[in-house]
Amino acid sequence: MLTLPSNAAILVIDVQEGFDDPQWGSRNNPDAEKVIASMLGVWRETSRPVLHVQHLSKFEGSPLHPANAGCKIKEEVQPFQGEMVFQKRVNSAFIGTSLEENLRDQGIDTIVMVGLTTPHCVSTSARMAATLGFHVYLAKDAIAAFGITGPDGKNHSAEEIHQISLATLHDEFATITDSRTLIDAALS
Asked: CATH top-level class for 9-187?
């Protein structure tokens, strides 16, 4: 059975309205936001640290640009008063933010990551967190990906991208598990 330290933080990455824009294409894990909301409820109930990341795109045409409504964090995962929000402009939640300093100041060495998207900001943040010495867990059902076209013109489905992205992280940068396992660990 998985155990988590009492101060294991949940890091909600880029769960923003702009990811509902059709420009992204098809997505896997359509219930990821509901799963994240359930996990947040447990983290809050058990007084564990809850941290949020919001992507502020540098590109005006992006749904995640601060001037666009899509930059807003989705309602079901809105930060509660006192929960920190780290705003970033690149894929890693650790670059250009005080996230690492905040975690170290609180004595947190374990991070449960959830959010959007698997091959981009979640993966980049997980890799950097592990490189910085944090223990990282990813809830595979609380993360989602979009389909991608490769340089050869071949289309890769959202589920394929999700699974391959998780496979490249597992046992090297993060432990890949599911929300139920992490919720049970948080409640034990």
From this structure: alpha beta
